[in-house]
């Protein structure tokens, strides 16, 4: 089935992710209409996809020849285009800002749930080839995770394109002129919150569980954007319990990697999973050489039977009793194609799936609890999120 879609905004990832994906998936998607306030970009996209230019998102979502809407740009409109699409009965692919607030944005979540349409939030780390391969290794070779270390070093290039010049001018010249209302620190804080939500969701996806509690620490007592660290505690994974039960009953699993005694010793200590997540923009934007120096692995996972180092999108190095294994997965389908392919299945399936929306709001709730932990100086229980 070919979906007739409309695009709302084209965003910073249009050229690198969404445009190539739509070109490759031309047998599944037919771009019928485009609404974008950047005229040159809109003209190019309209010409390439033979689509109709539209003056507003309301006009786009109410068209009879539109089955689904792709919101591809962060803007001041926030949830209005997606809300209008849901009310018009159109499925929504949300690649815009994930800076949700679980309380303030509850009305939007309820609107999506009540609409009956498919909704998918863009969570690209889940669909990276290295992440998918890591999940395979956890199920087959590495065993259940025990410790996860996840770090993101933010820099100016992570900011939306429209804001980069504003940050640079403020930092170098100290004068924004007409852009004086833009607060670079707020931009950095928003980037940090969005990245932390993505990292939280990534860890939850790798573990396959929701965390039980969170504890947070910042570089400064205030809620600053330069550095924030979270500690998530998960319950023991099902694979970890199954492995320990096998050894406790004297029935070790068949494996060629090490003795059953060694594995029993390692798994007997697996009482749960701890994830350490950190994110910040602590290196000044003008120190470009320092920013690129020795970047840490995007994720390090210590499992029952080995350890893995992940660099997105497609590099994975892992170690077990047999030694080092290095995999380059650049030949896999790009992340944009995988996500849009998943969206197509969600829309055409008879079973409605809102897991992306639930997971995004779950990550937002965890981050909100982390702020409570920071202010109160204690670990916060997340039992109410389950």
Report on this structure:
By secondary structure, the protein is an alpha/beta fold. The chain has helices at 14-24, 39-49, 57-61, 80-87, 106-115, 124-127, 129-142, 161-172, 184-207, 238-248, 260-268, 288-291, 335-348, 355-376, and strands spanning 3-8, 29-35, 52-53, 68-71, 91-94, 119-121, 145-153, 211-218, 228-235, 272-280, 299-303, 307-311, 315-320, 323-328, 380-381. The protein has 2 domains: 3-96, NAD(P)-binding Rossmann-like Domain (Rossmann fold); 127-236 and 271-335 and 365-385, Dihydrodipicolinate Reductase, domain 2 (2-Layer Sandwich), CATH 3.30.360. The protein has 14 helices and 15 strands. Strands 14-13-12-11-7-10-9-8-15 form a 9-stranded mixed β-sheet. The chain has a 6-stranded parallel β-sheet with strand order 3-2-1-4-5-6, with helices on both faces.
């Amino acid at each position: 089935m070919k979906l007739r879609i409309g695009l709302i905004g084209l965003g910073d990832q249009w050229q690198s992710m969404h445009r190539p994906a739509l070109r490759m998936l031309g047998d599944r998607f037919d771009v019928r209409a485009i609404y974008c306030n950047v005229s040159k970009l809109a003209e190019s996209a309209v010409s390439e996809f033979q689509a109709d230019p539209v003056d507003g998102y309301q006009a786009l979502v109410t068209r009879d020849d539109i089955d689904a809407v792709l919101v591809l740009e962060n803007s001041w409109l926030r949830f209005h285009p997606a809300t209008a699409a849901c009310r018009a009965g159109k499925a929504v692919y949300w690649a815009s800002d994930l800076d949700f607030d679980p309380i303030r944005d509850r009305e939007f979540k309820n609107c999506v749930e009540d609409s009956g349409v498919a909704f998918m939030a863009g969570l690209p780390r889940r669909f990276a080839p290295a992440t998918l391969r890591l999940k395979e290794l956890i199920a087959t070779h590495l065993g259940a995770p025990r410790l996860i270390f996840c770090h993101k070093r933010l820099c100016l290039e992570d900011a939306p394109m429209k804001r980069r010049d504003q940050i640079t001018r403020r930092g170098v010249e100290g004068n924004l002129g007409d852009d004086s209302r833009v607060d670079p620190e707020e931009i950095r804080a928003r980037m940090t919150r969005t990245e932390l939500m993505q990292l939280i969701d990534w860890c939850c996806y790798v573990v396959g569980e929701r965390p039980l509690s969170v504890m947070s620490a910042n570089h400064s007592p205030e809620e600053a954007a330069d550095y924030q660290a979270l500690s998530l505690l998960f319950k023991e994974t099902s694979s970890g319990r199954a492995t320990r039960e096998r050894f406790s009953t004297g029935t070790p699993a068949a494996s060629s990697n090490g003795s059953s005694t060694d594995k029993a010793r390692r798994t007997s200590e697996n009482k749960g999973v701890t994830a350490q997540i950190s994110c910040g923009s602590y290196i000044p934007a003008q120190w470009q050489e320092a920013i690129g120096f020795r970047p840490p692995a995007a994720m390090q996972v210590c499992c029952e039977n080995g350890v893995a180092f992940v660099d997105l999108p497609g590099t994975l190095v892992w170690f077990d009793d047999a030694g080092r294994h290095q995999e380059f997965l650049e030949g896999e389908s790009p992340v944009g194609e995988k996500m849009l392919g998943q969206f197509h299945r969600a829309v055409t399936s008879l079973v409605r799936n809102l897991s992306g929306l639930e997971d995004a709001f779950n990550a937002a709730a965890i981050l909100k609890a982390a702020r409570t932990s920071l202010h109160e100086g204690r670990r916060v229980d997340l039992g109410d999120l389950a």
